[in-house]
Amino acid sequence: RNYAPNVETGTNEKLTLELYPGADGDFELIEDDGLSNEYLKGRYALTTITFSQNETVSIAPVLGDYIGMPEQRSWRLKILSPDTVSAITVNGKELSFKQDGKFLLTDFVEFPVSEKVIFRIQN
Q: Is pLDDT of 21 > 90?
């Protein structure tokens, strides 16, 4: 997420996932409008993100909604990777990446929040 001085002025339209491989894992990103108590009435969005040791990162379609929720989101991976990576694909298309110290950093890639996104890392 780009820096913002507070929740009210920031957006989650561009997110970087920092991954530290070691075991399979998952994470639930929960979002709301950042201003109201509408989340108490069920007005929030949930995105499940999973990482598996076969070097796959899967971002599920968003469940739920809230006022001001973006229709598109840009994702980028930052992966601690001592191994050599030959390619990274997202939904079957090759994605550019660079080595940044001990991390691999992909370009941002934009998808509708309603679409499943699958990154595959090939060694």
A: no
